[in-house]
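--- STAGE predict ---
source: upstream dedup step, 1 unique chain passed
mode: sequence only
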Amino acid sequence: MQHHGAFPTTRLRRTRQHAWLRRAVAETVLTPADLVWPLFVHDGKAPVAVPSMPGVERLSIDGVARAAEQAAALGIPAIALFPVVDAAHKSDDGRQAVDPENLACRTVRAVRRAIGDTVGIICDVALDPYTTHGHDGLLLDGRILNDETVEVLCRQAVVLAEAGCQVVAPSDMMDGRVGRIRWALDAAGRQDVCILSYAAKYASAFYGPFRDAVGSQQALGTARSLGVGDKQTYQMSPANGDEALREVALDVAEGADMVMVKPAGTALDIIHRVKREFGLPTFAYQVSGEYSMIQAAAAAGWLDGPKAAVESVLVIKRAGADGILTYFAPEIAKALR
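--- STAGE serialize ---
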């Protein structure tokens, strides 16, 4: 066992005395390259504020392209795209998800035209933006269908890849979907497209503002009348940690290139365990509720918002995350510069 000495010869405060020295001995360093910027896109021409997420807007397709250019200028390596689908295009079976002309595909092509490969595009693979009931999968007789949903997700992943998406991110938590999506992408000649699997996604109370932003919150109200008002039959219980490692192991075995833990702030222990156990590129999502809590507290004058934002993301990296999805990405990137 290593001995480090004792007081008074050892004084740990010595290396805390000067700003330059604190920087020199920092064990964790946050950079813009650690960040991914989640963006909401809608079919309108003007940006629309998300009331429950101060500072966040639903952007037009052109607005997303401009945001991607901003990300490149700030050193943020990737954006994560989430479509706000018009109610007229939603259906019980979410068929719009597999339309090559859907909002997500058109946005990917527009960003590619605007900036080429300068910034990565990560696309969500799940049915919740496209279904009338707001669930990530197909719903029948009060039950979310697993295998039937996976077949739709495979087609969704392929159309996104063909539009120019380099990373598909299945966030649905259906069993077996990673292997099937990998097979579908390869069969379509898209062996180069990465899979970032939402491997450990918890049924969290912190997703509320996101559901407001994409318009699935109201749809889940419809689902409640059908007896499936929440997502606990497919998203994980926040009580479980060992189960998260089993989920990750299965997704890795099926061909996941990278894995996601969500939400980040309430699962720092899981991020740490996943990174240590698998050594795989590990991403974490600082979700809408985490973002909005900090923004609300800052607006009330209860804490320093910018400092709290940086600290909240720094500790996610300290836990072991290689990449962090956060709505604070542009503000943090500017602050770090």
